[in-house]
Amino acid sequence: MRKILLVTITVLSCLGLHAQAHIDTLTSASKKDLSTFIKVINAAGLNNIFDGQPLTIFAPDDKAFDKFSVQKIDSLLTSSNKSVLITTLDAHIISGKLTAKDIAKAIHDGGGQATFRTLAGTTLIATINVNRNIVLSDNNGCESTIKIFNVKEGNTDMFVIDSVLLPKNKYLQFTSNK
User: Is 65 exposed, middle or buried (0-12, 13-18, 19+ CB in 10 A)?
Assistant: First the structure.
């Protein structure tokens, strides 16, 4: 399945199709419960996230977004909260491509933890828990476990995680349209 996905992405890239093709391929081919994440990317206007500079993306699965109320997610997706949405997405993205092996090596080299700077300017601390899972902690102390590793998508290495990573608390003040 992964080979088919990579071949599809390569062919689409060679044809110069828009990044939406990457998102469509990801949504249909991976079947990893990323529909809310894809909706968030589109609402933020970041459909081209899979094109351009190399990135590492920690993509929350649908269950991660289910931890928030429907009203909070709906509010986040409004145009009045676009900057909050982009900042929240940027808290899941690191410049450059990292594989699981790279992250594990950085944790080992760092004496049990590795620090990564996100595009939002926040810090992610990576550790390995007792079950040998890679766990990411954000600036608020929220922890997220990597569930799926090394999904290659366009210019990114993507990891599926089980919680939404959040920028500083001040960004969580979503405006309500009610």
Answer: buried
In terms of pLDDT, which residue wins out, 154 or 147?
A: 147
- How far is the C-alpha of 6 from the C-alpha of 153, rounded, in Å? 7
Nearest-Å Rg of the Cα atoms of the chain is 16
- Please give the full DSSP string across 139-172, using - where no structure is assigned: TT--EEEEEEEEEEETTEEEEEESS-----GGGG
pLDDT tens per residue across span 49-107: 777 789 999 999 999 999 988 888 888 889 898 988 899 999 999 999 999 999 999 99
CATH architecture assignment, domain 33-172: Roll (2.30)
Contact 24, 38 (CB under 8 A): no
Buried b vs exposed e over 97-132: b needs ≥16 C-beta within 10 Å?
ebeeeebbeebeeeeeebebebbbebebbbebeeee
